[in-house]
Amino acid sequence: MKEEGALQAKAIVVTSGKGGVGKTTTTANVGAALAQEGEKVVVIDVDVGLRNLDVVMGLEGRVVFDLIDVLEGRCKMRQALIRDKRVENLFLLPASQTRDKEALDPKVFRAVVKHLIEDEGFDRVLIDSPAGIERGFQTAAAPAEGALVVVNPEVSSVRDADRIVGLLEAGEVAENHLIVNRIRPKMVKRGDMLSVDDIVEILGIRLIGIVPEDEGILVSTNVGEPVALRKDRSAAGEEFRNIARRIRGEEVPFPDLDESGGIWQTVRRIFGGR
Amino acid sequence: MFWWRRRKSKQKAKERLQLVLAYDRAKLAPGKMEDLKRDLLEVLHRYFPTEDREVEIEFEQRGERVVLIADIPVRS
């Protein structure tokens, strides 16, 4: 029952279809949390031309080279990898800000990820996909064996996620997991927001995280420090850490936010597992 | 009614999603459903010419598959 839940995938794409649902925040936080759990992690920004993972992680000041520089031979891989000094074994590979999506070829990117895993010894490669379903997404998903599909409890986001799941399956990305982000328990209770159960039922992929709406996220982006690394106990930070533990196969109960709510659901989740 | 709608906008969201995803997954534009209905009626008329009928068609998700369900009265 335990190892069954672990993600075998070393290369994981974080994707959503729709923009602005929290892909970059998820990549930064799950990456940081996995590193805290002891894995050697690299987070890669594939949003060529619109990079943001660097600022969300607070590493923008240390970017010298980027992914495209490596590919075009202007530097070595080691020179482009930025080591996060706050956690052991966490690295960022930034996207180029001055080029466009055409500068990165899916086949070439697949080779880059293979190199990072096989030669640089990374346990986990988290790929921050651009929004959309075009080339940028195709490139980001090309090397992935698994995916974290980020969705907001909202009609347009769920619809786009369904499309993404279809494309991932067609592209033979096998381990697809769902993160419901920015859920507002009060609205769910009122019946004015899709619940986690609704979304799981509609999309039909395995749930791995339920992240509540949290002002702490904006604050953490303001200062460039992922909530998962912050000392103050924010609900979102806690759940991002839990997602990392679930990825590693630990059985961590989900936060109790659902509309039926209350003690019974908690009991069900603890004993029934999910 | 107004009260119900306000209280349960998530129910509405869920129903709309399920419908739009059925069309998305079947790769059929919702507007095409009327054409399909019309063509279906035309074919039916060839075999059952006697009366006009109302055909109801909808998509249903059955596990992995999307199924087209048609409710066709042959004798009313």
UniProtKB/TrEMBL annotation, chain A:
Q: Which residues form the CobQ/CobB/MinD/ParA nucleotide binding domain?
A: 12-224
The question of whether Cell membrane is a record keyword is answered with no
**Residues reported to bind ATP:** 18-25
One Gene Ontology term of the molecular function aspect:
ATP binding
Listed A to Z, the keywords are: ATP-binding, Cell cycle, Cell division, Nucleotide-binding, Septation
Sorted alphabetically, the Gene Ontology BP terms of this entry are: division septum assembly; negative regulation of cell division
What InterPro entries does the entry give? Answer: CobQ/CobB/MinD/ParA_Nub-bd_dom (IPR002586), MinD (IPR010223), MinD_FleN (IPR025501), P-loop_NTPase (IPR027417), ParA/MinD_ATPase (IPR050625)
Give an example GO cellular component term for this record.
Answer: cytosol
> Where does the source fall among the domains of life?
Bacteria
The family database entries (CDD domains) matched by this protein are listed as:
MinD
Among Pfam families, the record links this protein to: CbiA
Q: What does this protein do?
A: ATPase required for the correct placement of the division site. Cell division inhibitors MinC and MinD act in concert to form an inhibitor capable of blocking formation of the polar Z ring septums. Rapidly oscillates between the poles of the cell to destabilize FtsZ filaments that have formed before they mature into polar Z rings.
Provide the family line. Belongs to the ParA family. MinD subfamily.
The molecule here is called Septum site-determining protein MinD
Native source species = Oceanithermus profundus
Q: Gene name?
A: minD
UniProtKB/TrEMBL annotation, chain B:
The yes or no answer to whether the keyword Cell cycle is present is yes
Q: Which UniProt keywords apply?
A: Cell cycle, Cell division
- Pfam families associated with the record: MinE
> Which GO terms fall under biological process for this protein?
cell division; regulation of division septum assembly
Which family, according to UniProt? Belongs to the MinE family.
* NCBIfam families attached to this UniProt entry: minE
State what protein this is by name: Cell division topological specificity factor
Gene name per UniProt: minE
